[in-house]
Design brief:
single chain, alpha+beta, two-stranded antiparallel ribbon, 4 helices, 8 strands, 18% strand, globular
Length: 142
């Protein structure tokens, strides 16, 4: 269930009041548990062979948020204060570790999209990500 939307980019599809996201890893260990609070970084995207749906950003799209502190709570069966290195390879968990959700909201509001991604607003997040990744690889090869 969605309690509050902290940020949504201009033109983004409206988030429903509730949604179901598959938050599982092999061998089917649940990532989240009832009774805890989480911040979800969600995108409306498709996965190969599946229809588009609201999904957590890959690897770091769900952050524990008990006691209004990012990185504190429960995730993947572990409880307490999570070491930020275990949460996200993108650096967001490290940057926001111990912060309140309003700090994350402020960061999201002032973040500029990658120029290559902004050129393709109608592509899915996954497709925009691929454009950015390919652009970086091409620059490295020059």
């Amino acid at each position: 269930m969605v309690d509050k939307v902290l940020y949504s980019r201009d033109g983004a599809k409206k988030l429903p009041d509730s949604f179901r996201a598959e938050l599982w890893q092999v061998p089917c260990v649940p990532w989240v548990k009832a009774g805890h609070t989480y911040l979800g970084l969600l995108v409306f995207d498709s996965v190969a062979g599946e229809p588009s749906a609201w999904r957590p950003v890959y690897s770091g799209g769900v952050l524990p948020y008990d006691n209004e502190s990012i990185g504190t709570g429960e995730i993947e069966g572990k409880e307490g204060e999570m070491p930020y290195e275990d949460l996200s390879p993108f650096g967001l968990s490290k940057q926001m570790h111990g912060e309140h959700a309003l700090t994350l909201q402020s960061l999201l509001r002032k973040t500029e999209p990658y120029a290559e991604a902004a050129k393709h607003p109608n592509l899915s997040p996954g497709e925009r990500y691929e454009r950015v990744r390919k652009g970086r690889e091409a620059r490295r090869d020059e």
